Amino acid sequence: MSPESTGQNEHYISVARRRFRTWRGDRPFWAGLFTILGGAPIAYFPYADLHLGNMTLTMSTTAGAGSLIIGVLLITLGLTMWFHHIVRVFAGIAAILLALISIPVANIGGFLIGFLFALVGGALSISWAPGRPESEQAPSDEQPYEERPEAELQGAAAVPQQQGAEFDTAADADGGRHRAG
Questions:
Q1: What is the secondary structure of 61-89 as a DSSP string?
Q2: Are 142 and 130 in contact (CB under 8 A)?
Q3: What is the 3-state secondary structure (H, E, C) of 90-120?
Q4: How far is 78 from 95, CA to CA, in rounded Å?
């Protein structure tokens, strides 16, 4: 290896971390994660066995199948938010509705843990919007106002300037309505 070769000196962990950061930034990652974390306790708790010494506490209920369906659907919606983010609004609304349905069906929404995670994940999915590429972003406020293109001007400043020196728009004692001559 020579000191001029820059690409080979990067560690594979930093490259993987950078790729994951790029992948995570292009989709509603946190919305999907919270939705998946909300679906897991909703699906798990009705079938869980709690062992306390020699005593086993089984939380099987008659609504176990409903809880399993809601939990699996929430996990599927979370994965949909990650891998098919174009339907993020539908997935967010469906996650919120399933979280609300899980309160009476699935042991108070997975003892409120799954309910809250699924509710936050659905809300994040609805509110997420993809970022614009750097070339399409609006100009920063640091750029002088006169240098901005006419298409970017808004409000009263969008009035086109008159060509020539026929009209003086400076504020004079007569209101700037006199002809320059």
A1: -TTHHHHHHHHHHHHHHHHHHHH-GGGHH
A2: no
A3: HHHHHHHHHHHHHHHHCHHHHHCHHHHHHHH
A4: 8
How far is residue 68 from each of residues 102, 120, 173, measured CA to CA in Å?
Answer: 10, 20, 79
Output the CA–CA distances (angstroms, integers) from residue 160 to 55, 69, 75, 149, 153, in the order listed.
Answer: 83, 61, 54, 12, 10
Per-residue pLDDT tens listing for the chain (181 residues):
556 655 555 688 888 889 888 888 888 999 999 999 999 999 888 877 778 888 877 766 666 788 889 999 999 999 999 999 889 999 999 999 999 999 988 888 888 999 999 999 999 999 998 877 767 655 555 555 555 555 555 555 555 555 555 555 555 555 555 555 5
- Is the separation of the CB atoms in 96 and 124 below 8 Å? no
Q: Are 155 and 140 in contact (CB under 8 A)?
A: no
CA-wise closest residue to 89 among 24, 28, 30, 39: 28
For the chain, which residues make up each domain, given as ranges? 20-127
